Amino acid sequence: LDEFLGFxxxxxxxxxxxxxxxxxxxxxxxxxxGFAMLAIAFIDPNNHDVIVTLATIGxxxxxxxxxxxxx
Length: 71
What we know:
Layout: H1 2-20, H2 22-41, H3 48-70
């Protein structure tokens, strides 16, 4: 699953870099990742589906961030 999310994050990054450029993509991926990780703290611990979804969004945001930093 981790490799799939990394691949998905890389594809998202390539598309966003084409349309938004490096700076806006980096700022947006950091904001999305931060929002998703902070939102997990305020979600009911028994609501596993929402927690997994937010964690997945955060991981994709981190992969986008990592891909941009390697450029």
